[in-house]
Amino acid sequence: MSTTLLHDAVHIIQQGGLVAFPTETVYGLGANALNERAVAEIYAMKSRPRFNPLIVHFAAPGAARAQVRWNAPAEALADAFWPGPLTLVLPRAQDSRVALLASAGLPTLAVRVPAHPLARALLEAAGLPLAAPSANRSGRISPTAAAHVRAEFGDGVPVLDGGPCEVGLESTVVDLSGDAPLLLRSGAVTAEALSRVLGREVARAGKDAGIAAPGMLQSHYAPTLPLRLNADSVRPGEALLAFGPQPLTGAAYMLNLSEAGDVKEAAANLFAYLRRLDQKDFTGIAAMPVPQEGLGAAINDRLMRASRRDK
Ligand code: TXA
Ligand code: MG
Questions:
Q1: Angle, helix 36-46 to helix 263-277, in steps of 10 degrees
Q2: Distance from the CA of 122 to the CA of which of 21, 25, 63, 185 falls in 20 to 30 A?
Q3: Residue 73: pLDDT above 80?
């Protein structure tokens, strides 16, 4: 391990950039989890077709605990398996500073304390939580060595080389936000091991539990106000979610996702702006069209979900 590289990586993270780093499971593509714009870069780099929620990595359990509504099962599992290949899904804390884009607008947050010494060194030295999906392009196999990451992204992403990953499979993901614990993704920490610690059966998501992948869940953030897509004019009382250098006129209130028409900037602003516009003073939210290119497709996917009234 090279100290220079670690030093550089810390600097890049603190500047809002991306760094690939090893964990005991797979290599992660990390960015400052508190910075919406940095998190938007992750989605752009991976070419994710839509905003799947990301796991947020912490140096210590105490730091993770502060960003969620912690509960007794979480305490038991963290005690038993952290640091390690286990991710806990919990309700976001009211005052959580984690970027809304990291959890794709969901009311929950996936948190994990990795065990890999280089991951821990990076988290500690940066003094920030890291949002990190597996460091592969969307739809490809997760990387378990630095060379795999380079094959995915070339020189586009600096890589901290920690050798081959010990686990080589993504972390176990358990949802502890509901009445009963639910296994969303199997991994090195088995359902049996979870059940033993919790003293109760852990159901598997899927057909049994009637729950599909998180990206398919209907529980994505949707505003209370009606959201009107592809607006070419503003109706009386509407707030405007604008995009680009020529916003529509006549809105009661307006927020512009990106005056420059930059979809990455727009993605970073999207969830925060929707929340700010979702106020009783307005009759509805009119959203200007966003081009379908790059992260625009993901933005439109989220806007479309948010506009559906049939939940
Ligand atoms: O081992 C791992 O978990 C690796 C390393 C880098 O930590 N990361 C990883 O991230 O595999 P990713 O993005 O490839 O997978 C994250 C999984 C996805 O299945 C995602 O849907 C789920 O975690 N997830 C994240 N946040 C969630 C949430 N709030 N609710 C439900 N599922 C969530
Ligand atoms: Mg992945």
A1: 130
A2: 185
A3: yes
Query: Does the structure show a pLDDT above 70 at 233?
Result: yes
pTM: 0.82
Which two tokens mark 60? 């210590």
Predicted confidence band of residue 49 (pLDDT cuts 50, 70, 90): low
Torsion of CA 300, 267, 29, 31, to 10 degrees: -160
> For the chain, what is the mean pLDDT?
89
The residue whose C-alpha atom lies closest to atom 13 belonging to ligand 1 is 133
**Contact status, residue 55 vs residue 68, Cβ threshold 8 Å:** no
**Ligand 1, from 42, 47, 55, 88: best to mutate by most atoms within 8 Å of Cβ?**
55
Q: Which residues contact 199 (CB under 8 A, 6 or more apart)?
A: none
CA–CA distance, 281 with 239 (Å, rounded to integer): 9
- How many angstroms separate the alpha carbon of residue 261 from the centre of ligand 1? 30
Pick the residue with more confidence: 309 or 51? 51
Q: How far is the CA of 241 from the centre of ligand 1 (A)?
A: 29
The binding-site residues of ligand 1, defined as CB within 6 angstroms of any ligand atom, are: 23, 25-26, 28, 52-55, 87, 89, 103, 106, 108-110, 112, 132-134, 170-171, 173, 175, 184-185, 214
| Ligand located closest to 130 CA | 1
Atom of ligand 1 nearest to the CA of 170: 1
Find the 55 Cα to ligand 1 centroid distance in Å. 5
Measure Cα distances from 168 to 30, 134, 142, 158, 173 in Å: 17, 11, 8, 20, 15
Residue 195 is inside which H or E element, if any?
A: helix 191-198
Q: Do residues 203 and 191 lie in contact, with contact meaning Cβ atoms separated by under 8 Å? A: no
